[in-house]
Write a structure and sequence with these properties.
Shape: globular
Number of helices: 15
Protein name: NmrA-like domain-containing protein
Helix content: 40-55%
InterPro entries: NAD(P)-bd_dom_sf (IPR036291), NmrA-like (IPR008030), NmrA-type/Isoflavone_red_sf (IPR050608), PCBER-like (IPR045312)
Keywords: NADP, Oxidoreductase
Strand order of the largest sheet: 3-2-1-4-5
Order of helices and strands: HHHEHEHEHEHEHEEHEEHEEHEHHEHH
Number of strands: 13
Radius of gyration: 27 Å
Largest sheet: 5 strands, parallel
GO molecular function, one term: oxidoreductase activity
Distance between the termini: 71 Å
Organism: Phaseolus coccineus (Scarlet runner bean)
């Protein structure tokens, strides 16, 4: 822009319409002086806001993960670090009784640049770490779900948290109605959701459906040389099996996404929707093994859920919900629903077909869930 522009020229460039009669121009320019100043202030203000936004994008949010040494927690930690976030893991104090696997994992975290914060579930200790970060993610096992109430209290006191992701990562608990043992399991998670909403803490609820590697190991048992496999119900109900690495990456992205604030994000990529029968057939094609299917009827599963003591009745109730009733696919996603692969189309998730290829080359070790 030339430095010798008149005030009227500057007004025109800012989008104001000048009078067509030359005799009115001087009067117009004088009267538009205040409008010019106002427009300039608005423009400068906009530039300042843009600079602030750029600075926010440049400064990666700090993330603390409670339960970071657990099954899905370790994936979340690695995803957070890989996306460039200063990452903290809040863990119980390491001592002589700490398992060798957890000690080794914590060493790996240290080498990755993760800040390990050792502490108990006590208010002041939780509050201290929360004051240092922007985002809180919980990946606590079921027996510790209600400990999140202490985290919620600390978040309310701290007042600085931009997003909270509680320990969900399973079925969309507000849209299923399973057998009583699983219902009681989900009721605790629903209580946490309602408490978060009442506290007006910025949140994102994650419905990640099935952990793909975990359930493939559980259902097909590729590490077992036995050619028998158990099928729950008739094997035709559809479920959603997502690779844990993708669940973690989607979750870290969602935690930093303004579109997901105070929303539920459902992980239902089209290539990961599969039935037990199709999963077994796909593995037979890839591995060259043929399986004999042992079917467990719905009636048998319901009976087990009623007769097994707690918490042994929880896993069979989960199997009934997911693989007999097909609860993950029993509701349609509407226009207002947020689905992860649609939110982040540029992220190349691992299809169930590709996950089985991983198992062919480098089988992932089986894991077990804690219910007590």
């Amino acid at each position: 822009m030339s430095s010798n522009l008149s005030s009227c020229d500057r007004v025109m460039l800012l989008g104001f319409q000048l009078p067509t009669r030359i005799s009115d121009t001087r009067a117009y320019c004088l009267s538009s002086h205040n409008s010019l100043i106002s427009a300039l202030k608005t423009t400068l203000s906009g530039l300042s806001i843009c600079k602030i936004c750029l600075k926010m994008e440049e400064r990666k949010s700090k993330i603390v993960i409670f339960g970071g040494s657990g099954y899905i927690g370790k994936y979340l930690v690695k995803a957070s670090v890989s996306l460039g976030h200063p990452t903290y893991v809040y863990t119980r104090p390491l001592n002589a009784q700490t398992s060798s696997s957890k000690s080794q994992l914590c060493k790996e975290f240290n080498h990755m640049g993760v800040t390990l914060v050792q502490g108990e579930f006590e208010h002041e200790q939780i509050l201290a770490v929360i004051k240092e970060v922007d985002i809180v993610i919980c990946a606590l096992p079921y027996p510790q779900v209600m400990e999140q109430l202490k985290i919620i209290d600390a978040i309310k006191v701290a007042g600085n948290i931009k997003r909270f992701l509680p320990s969900d990562f399973g079925v969309e608990e507000d849209r299923v109605n399973p057998l009583p043992p699983f219902q009681a399991f989900l009721d605790k998670k629903r209580k946490i959701r309602r408490e978060i909403e009442a506290s007006e803490i910025p949140y994102t609820f994650i419905s990640a459906n099935c952990f793909g590697a975990y359930f493939f190991n559980y259902l097909v048992r590729p590490y077992d040389k036995n050619n028998h496999t158990i099928v729950y119900g008739n094997g035709d109900a559809k479920a959603v099996l997502n690779y844990e690495e993708d669940i973690a990456m989607y979750s870290i992205k969602a935690a930093n996404d303004p579109r997901t604030c105070n929303r539920v994000v459902i992980y239902r990529p089209s290539k990961n929707i599969i039935s037990q029968n199709d999963l077994i057939s796909l593995w037979e094609q890839k591995s060259g093994n043929n399986f004999l299917k042992d079917f467990v009827s719905e009636e048998e599963i319901i009976n087990l859920s009623q007769t097994l003591p707690s918490p042994q009745n929880i896993p069979v109730s989960i199997l009934h919900s997911v693989f007999v009733r097909g609860d993950m696919m029993n509701f349609e996603l509407g226009e207002d629903d947020l689905e992860a692969s649609q939110l982040y189309p540029d992220y190349e998730y691992t299809s169930i077909d590709e996950l089985l290829n991983i198992f062919l080359l480098h089988p992932l070790p089986p894991a077990s869930a804690a219910f007590e």
